[in-house]
Design a protein that fits this description.
The protein is of the alpha/beta class and 771 residues long. It has 26 helices and 24 strands. The two termini are 27 Å apart.
Length: 771
């Protein structure tokens, strides 16, 4: 709670004492039946412990944040450092090494080192690096990916780019980590030698947690089938490790206490081999606690074990609480533990293996579903079937994988028998998600839930759990006492009230949004490209251009904005950096109308989009100068260009130019037109071009935005879609100088991220940038 408070609230510490005061008042005012229960939770000792723990978390996150900021301030400075290589990843053009600092300000700090393939380093190399600290990309769109936060979850303090590296010493690493790295490398080599590439990449992920070599298509198939968790090492893998080594040690008649201690040490080594993945740390710590509890003759309690695991993880790195893997691992485990046994007790009979897998899958999803929707925006209706088919195979693959790998150290020929069996099973393992992902409705996109709905969902779910506890006459243990916390009828009434409240909220919130009668224009950061989303006061949506379409940036953005339907899709012209992003939107969202201009020739991008639009039965509207498109009440598009008879062969100068109008507000969209078209527009429209906002043509290129054109438009605000450090040199110095000369406020996606223009019902303009 302290970590979350420090991360998100960062408000007066007095709020903490206010919460404690409220709890005290609740304690005093509740009736006698509840006072006994409340006293178990709220007593002086417990309150003191809660306050101490809370403030440790709060202070820890604040200090860690300040520590990170110290290194972020070194961006673009040249630094010399000595460090040891602890990890290596390779792509087509560069190596990315993880190094741990050994001197000056970088001591014991992890950094990413990018270098060309001229420098081949090994894990354990002590190196001297002279390089420049790089800026780490932050979130630039609403709820977009934040690389800086991601690196914080991995305890990485900065990125350095260098071509001046000197190896001082080899094998400069502690023997435990060195041994773990060697084992990891040998296992990967053994698997790679004995299996085809795709099969080897899957087994490597399951045995040592390295997913870097899995083909993107395979990863997407697992994701679509709701099977991503299968590729992450978790409790199942740890169980195999414990049971496997326990079986071997029993055979050599090792005493129980010795077995427990040895296996605990093996699990600690396994955490190191798998790279300290959060799911592995959780499962291993819980396994170690279970083993050692038997050594010290104490009972292992699930809630104590999982609490210790997350406390250790977050104390080492407070930002790990933001890690997707950690959240999914812990919440999924808690969900299974809460609901599985209770449902079995309600059934009051044994169930077969298939039903057990199905029930486990459903139980995990009870708490996980809102989180997976928020993070991935997708669900699969086949997730139960997929897990029933995959789960037995995973158990076999993990066990055989460990046996085959370790048998290689004894007999290479004998191990090949196991690898031969694995090859066939892994083919089936890859085939199942591939087939499921091709089924209809295998991937259903869902927009975000609002925070009130999520809170109420969990509140009702927890009440439902308590209801089931009472129904099976279960008790909730609080320290040494066991008390029923709520009567059945109270839970029923509260649950019914909450469900009604959720339904009301889901109706009221959209209604309140409509009553605001605001128009919002979102100029989205899609890198080197253009994309704009307009939401009218009556919630009609207009999407203008879609960028290059890399990494589902646009689709994810629309889902985060709760856009389920595009009423009007406009493609200014068919350059890839304006139209390719529209393909994924057409594939996955409902699109009513597609607005395009007439074409001199049909390029590949045009044909692809037209074919897809026709297959989805989208109405295609070809526009020309003089056309008016009525979007909503007081909202219209006035098409200014091009004419039906096109003058130019190039795509840029055939871009749709239109004036977006809402009451007294207007914005001029110019696509990628150049000065020759600007001059023609001046001749035809003269002062009619005047607009409050200008979408600067061609990303601020020197071939556009002439002084005469900018003067005629006379905007207050200029928006530019520009990729950071793009190879084209956009925007040009001349364009910026022209805009500044006319005192126009400039907003650029490379510097400002997403830009929001808000016009309220009185016509007042408010502009905000994401960064």
């Amino acid at each position: 709670m302290g970590l979350i408070y420090g991360l998100y609230l960062k408000i007066s510490i007095a709020l903490t004492f206010f919460i404690i005061l409220i709890l005290y008042i609740v304690k005093q005012t509740l009736n006698k039946n509840f006072k006994k229960y409340i006293k178990l939770i709220i007593n002086k000792k417990v309150v003191i412990l809660i306050i101490i723990a809370f403030f440790i978390g709060f202070i820890k996150i604040i200090i860690t944040e300040l520590n990170y900021n110290k290194y972020y301030n070194l961006v673009n400075t040249n630094q010399t450092m000595i460090g040891v290589v602890i990890d290596c990843q390779e792509n087509d053009y560069t190596y990315m090494y993880t190094i741990k600092g050994k001197d000056n300000i970088f001591k014991n700090k992890k950094l990413l080192l990018y270098t060309s393939k001229n420098y081949v380093l090994e894990v354990g190399n002590l190196i001297k690096v002279k390089g420049q600290m790089q800026e780490i990309a932050e979130r630039t769109n609403y709820k977009g990916f934040d690389y800086k936060t991601y690196l914080k979850t991995k305890s990485v303090f900065g990125i350095v780019k260098s071509s001046n590296i000197k190896v001082i010493k080899k094998n400069n690493i502690n023997f435990i980590y060195k041994y773990a790295v060697q084992i990891r490398a040998e296992i990967k080599e053994i698997i790679g030698t004995n299996l085809p590439k795709d099969s080897a990449s899957i087994l490597t992920a399951l045995i040592v947690g390295d997913k870097s070599n899995i083909d993107d298509d395979i990863v997407n198939n697992f994701k679509t089938s709701n099977l991503s968790h299968v590729l992450a090492i978790s409790g199942l893998h740890i169980s195999c490790v414990i049971l496997g080594f326990d079986f071997i040690m029993k055979k050599i008649k090792m005493p129980f206490k010795c077995r427990a201690i040895v296996i605990s040490l093996i699990l600690a080594l396994f955490i190191t081999i798998t790279g300290f993945t959060n799911s592995v740390v959780r499962a291993s710590i819980m396994g170690i606690i279970l083993l050692l509890s038997n050594v010290f003759y104490t009972k292992a309690d699930f809630w104590t074990s999982i609490s210790i695991a997350i406390l250790i993880t977050t104390f080492i790195n407070p930002f790990s609480i933001l890690d997707n893997g950690l959240q999914l691992s812990y919440i999924g485990t808690i969900s299974i533990v809460c609901f599985y046994n209770i449902i079995i007790k309600l059934k009051n009979k044994k169930i077969n293996k298939i039903k057990q897998i199905a029930l486990t899958t459903i139980c995990a999803q009870i708490f996980l579903m809102p989180i997976t929707i928020i993070k991935f925006h997708t669900i699969s209706i086949y997730f139960i079937i997929a897990n029933i088919l995959i789960s037995p195979l995973i158990s076999i693959v993990i066990n055989l994988g460990f046996i085959a790998t370790f048998t290689t150290f004894i007999s290479v020929k004998f191990s090949k028998i196991f690898f031969l069996i694995l090859k066939s099973i892994l083919k089936i393992l890859i085939l199942i998600p591939n087939l499921i992902s091709k089924l209809p409705f295998s991937k259903i996109y869902i927009t975000n839930f609002n925070s009130i709905t999520i809170t109420l969902y969990y509140f009702v779910t927890i009440l439902g759990y308590l209801y089931l506890c009472i129904k099976v006459k279960s008790k909730i243990q609080i320290r040494k006492y066991e008390k029923k916390i709520l009567e059945k009828r109270i839970i029923e009434k509260i649950s019914a009230t909450c469900i009604i409240f959720i339904i009301c909220i889901s109706i009221i919130i959209p209604a309140l949004e409509v009553l605001k009668q605001e128009l919002n224009i979102y100029f989205i950061d899609v890198g080197q490209g253009d994309s704009t989303l307009i939401i009218t006061p009556n919630k009609k949506t207009v999407l203008i251009d879609g960028g290059e379409g890399k990494n589902e940036t646009l689709l994810s953005y629309l889902l985060n904005r709760n856009v389920r339907r595009i009423n009007y899709m406009i493609i200014s012209h068919f350059d890839s950096d304006h139209c390719n992003g529209m393909l994924e939107v057409i594939d996955n969202l409902k699109v009513d109308n597609l607005i395009v201009s007439y074409q001199t020739s049909e390029c590949e991008e045009y044909r692809n989009i037209m074919e897809k639009a026709k297959s989805k039965k989208i109405k295609i509207i070809n526009v020309k100068d003089g056309d008016i498109v009525n979007i909503d009440k007081n909202v219209q598009l006035n098409i200014l260009y091009p004419k039906k008879e096109l003058k130019f062969e190039d795509l840029n100068n055939n871009s749709i130019v239109f004036k977006f109008k809402y009451k007294d507000f207007s914005m001029l969209f110019t696509g990628d037109i150049e000065e020759i078209v600007e001059n023609e527009l001046i001749k035809i429209y003269d002062n009619e071009l005047n607009s409050k906002v200008l979408k600067v043509a061609h990303h601020g290129s020197k071939s556009s935005s002439s002084k005469e054109f900018v003067k005629k438009v006379n905007p207050q605000i200029a928006l530019m879609g520009v990729g950071k450090n793009n190879i084209f040199g956009h925007p040009s110095y001349n364009t910026l100088q022209t805009l500044n000369e006319y005192n126009i406020k400039i907003f650029r996606t490379d510097q400002n991220g997403e830009i929001r223009v808000n016009i309220n019902k009185k016509g007042k303009i408010k502009i905000e940038s994401f960064k």
